[in-house]
Amino acid sequence: MFVARYIYPALLAHSTKRQITVLTGMRRTGKTTLLKQLMAQCDIPQKHYFDLERIDVRTLFSEPNYETIVQALSRQGTDFSKKVLICIDEIQLAPNLPSVLKYLYDSYDIKFIVTGSSAYYMKNQFSESLAGRKKIFEIFPLTFGELLAFKGIQGGRPEIKSAAKFVTSEYERLKAYYDEYVDFGGFPEVVLAESAEDKRDLISDILSSYINFDLTLLSDIRNPTNLFKLIKLLSVRIGTKLDISKLTSLTGMARQTVENYLDLLEKSYLIKTIPVLAKSPDREIVKARKVYFLDNGIASLAGELSSGSKFENAVFNQLAHRGEIAYYQLKTGREIDFILDQKQCFEVKETATEADLKHTESLARNLDITESYVIGRHPVRVFEGFIWGGFLQ
């Protein structure tokens, strides 16, 4: 059974447009499932699906004469005088594919829907050769609301103000699922696995594949052990400002190498750094970015995380799919954890109090933001402006 992702309506709408539809993100986030569903719902009669993990398919798309591809498909009965749908999985496995797509796109009436796991490659190669011919859609691990849907549990996607209305029965109904999301994240296979041990094994395999395959394709990494060491160091720094000098010292790598690896990890969807929102640079921290992981299961596996760090990372991912995230901090150390689209402020506390909300509201006034909330995991106290994390679906 296909469970629609939040991004699916946008993908479906774009599948009818002439532009190339590109799905990218970490491997095993569900790109192939989305691709095949789009293919099934497309009303173009002539359809082809190609998986570039197959050697014979890679050989076909590596032909130096691109017309050979057209000839091969014509022999299979495809009429290129009419519209054709071509779906291609794992395009990063064929380095010359952007050139192939550009030629075929310009020469024939072909709708392409393609997937690729390597964002760094996708953004660089596609930006150069397919300008104006493509639109990139980023596919992330499941949100908490999508996790519920995958498990057949009724959920929703309430607005922030609706999420701030605490309903005890809903909390009791969803609490165990939310704890699972905080601990194990949102990779579809992991969500559907039955036992905690199976979930951990799958997460370990996903991380290993990411380092050994995705990153190997993207960069000349001579020592994967150093990269894993950096990932572990980042996981225990969730929600803290990046200190490049400290990371350089702890890893023993050159500063430029650390900076290159951080850039690679972010562009390939393992981590995300967020900026500080500053209006009065003389009073505020203005440069340092904070780091978060784009999946809680990966973050938990990589390092020994505190319960609070896991919860904050989960909330980051829940808010990130709603808009642009920043943080705010005075030089005195007082801060707001998250600011959404420069309109709403959020403090994250496992056990929240009214004092936490007042603290956030007072800082928000510096930014002329009037809407503030405290997001908590344990609703020991429920008050106006309190949001239980599980209601942010």
UniProtKB/TrEMBL annotation:
Transmembrane segments: none annotated. InterPro entries: AAA+_ATPase, AAA_14, DUF4143, P-loop_NTPase. It comes from the Bacteria. Residues 17-146 form the AAA+ ATPase domain. This is ATPase.
